Every structure is written in C-alpha cells, then in structure tokens.
Amino acid sequence: MAVYTDINEIELSAFLENYEIGRLTSYKGIAEGVENSNYLLHTSTGSFILTLYEKRTNREDLPFFLGLMQHLAKRGLDCPQPVVRRDGTMIGELAGRPAAIVTFLEGMWMRRPTVVHCEAVGEGLARMHLAGADFPMQRRNGLSLADWRPLWNLSRDRAEEVETDLVAEAESDLAYLEQNWPAGLPQGVIHADLFPDNVFFLGDKLSGFIDFYFACTDILAYDVAICLNAWCFEKDFSYNRTKGAALLRGYTRIRPLSQAEADALPVLARGAAMRFMLTRLYDWLNTPEGSFVTKKDPMEYVRRMRFHRQIASAVEYGLEPEQVKAGAAA
Ligand SMILES: Nc1ncnc2c1ncn2[C@@H]1O[C@H](COP(=O)(O)OP(=O)(O)OP(=O)(O)O)[C@@H](O)[C@H]1O
Ligand SMILES: N[C@@H](CCO)C(=O)O
After folding, report:
1. 49, 82, 107, 197 - which has most CB atoms within 10 Å?
2. The complex's ipTM?
C-alpha cells in the first residue's frame, strides 16, 4: 500500500482549516499506488483525496501538475481538480511533506481491461493531448532517454539478482534506443503513466484520468506507446493485437498519427518498456522488505522489451493504414 507518511487527526484537522471544505468526519489511508501517500477524506461537504508528495515528486513540479489538472478540467476532460486554499494557493504542508487536496473522481479502475476499455482509453488519451495543446507551462520529462542510463547504472550491479543476463540485454537495448530515438515528432503535454490503475470507469464508460504526477512535455506518440505497454499485454506476456488495434483506433479517431509517428511506434514502445523496467528494477532492489508498498515486478517489462525487439512496423501493434494521415500534425 502507498502510505509512506502517517498523519494524525489533530494535524489533519488543523490542515483542513486552510480549506473551505467543511469539517472532517473520517479519513483513511488508500492501499493503492506506489508513488505518493494518499488519503480518502470525508468532510461535511463531500469526499476528497489528500496527497502527500513523496520521493519522486519534486515540490517545484507541483504547480505544473496541479495547474494541468485545472486546465484539462476547464477544457472538459474528466479529472480531479485541485481544491484552492483560503489563501488562493493549492499546495500546503502536512507532516513535513508538500500536500494538496483534489476532488474525488467517481468510478473504479479495471483489473481486467477489455477491448472496449482499450478503445475508450485510446480516445481519452487523444482528447487529453488536444486539451493540453494550449497549456502554457512546460516540464521536462525526468524519465526520458537521457535519464535511463543513469538510472540503469544505479541497479546494474545487482540486476542479475532479478534475471540472468539482464545486464547484456538491457545494455544492448539502451544502446539501440540511444541511437534510434526519434527526433522532430509532435510534442505536447503527455500523461506518461496512463496505466489501468490511473483510468476510472463507470461500467464501460470512461469516467476520468487520475495521477498526473509524471505528466510532462514530451513526444505525444510516446504516451500512446506507454498505453500499448500498459493495456494490451495479457498476464502471460502475450501482446493482444485486438486490444492494441482498439486502443489505436480510439486514439486516431480523435488525433490521427502522422506517418513519422507511426514509423516511430516500435522504438517508442521499446523505450516505454525500458522506462518502466528501470523504475521497477530500482524499486525492486531498493525497497526495504516489510515496507507497506506492493513492489511491481520488473520482469513484466523485461518480457515486453523482448516482445518489442521483434516488431518491425506499427501494423504489428494493430495500426491500420487508414489511421495514418499524410501530413497529420500535432
Ligand atoms: N481523485 C481521486 N478520486 C478517487 N480516487 C482517487 C483519486 N486520486 C487517487 N485515488 C485513489 O488513490 C489510489 C492511488 O492514487 P494514485 O494513482 O494517484 O497514487 P500513486 O501512488 O501516484 O500511484 P501510481 O502507482 O499509479 O503512480 C488510486 O488507485 C485511487 O484508488
Ligand atoms: N505505473 C508504474 C508505477 C508508477 O510509476 C508501473 O506500473 O511501474
């Protein structure tokens, strides 16, 4: 579970005096997520999520994340909205951590996403990319190509505790990615972590996205590649082309891919698998036994890296030629 920082009722009630959300009636830690500490709050006016920002979320980035949620909500995208404090700011401090409150989003995430969910998430992602087009702030992706090798070097010496020959495998992929990473593709605001646990549904209808704490300015098609990794593989690590086709169909219905983006999809997907393998590997090797967080298995992404190595064209992910538009731009 992800509650790294404990809070008590006295400090929480004092913290809530900075907001106009009524009196605290109950609260509890949320046993999901791995990055930040989250609490569900019930007050006399409704339900809210309190987040205490932990190690990978820099305080300087919070105005970008929270400002983005405000911007997207204004453009009609369903996502939590930061609650503004009495002093007009959105970020406070609780238990020594930066902290913010956002509105509660109804719905639940899909443990077993179907083709219908994949199509809906593809469409939602494209809508997010369009809604983010006029967001005025920029944030460098702190987990992009240039960051992978330094992150890998932190785990390299112990990587083979996880898998024999992982050193040779990862280094060969890193070298490939460094030489082949695409330049000049359309960029914009990307979510960068749109896994099933960050997308809520009410039945088969998408009710919104959460967890914008990796959002940044990067290649839009890289976000699509992240989603193919996160949504379209089965538990046995096989790629489900029907799900991939649905996700790409949903996305391109709203924002067609250019030929250059389509051509880059295999290397982007390979890079996305590397990115999640690396953060998982680091956490796997460095999270103390017995801590209250469920570690995510890096091998799930080593298996995806192996799959992407065999892919020559986006058609193999399920992209149809008519979904690629000559001259399509950002
Ligand atoms: N606005 C919201 N409305 C309803 N539930 C929420 C909201 N924000 C977070 N949650 C709940 O808290 C859980 C963890 O939130 P979140 O995904 O932001 O945490 P995280 O630690 O950043 O996770 P991740 O591992 O995905 O990065 C979610 O799965 C969901 O159950
Ligand atoms: N979605 C990430 C965890 C949050 O960064 C993963 O599954 O590895």
Report:
1. 82
2. 0.91
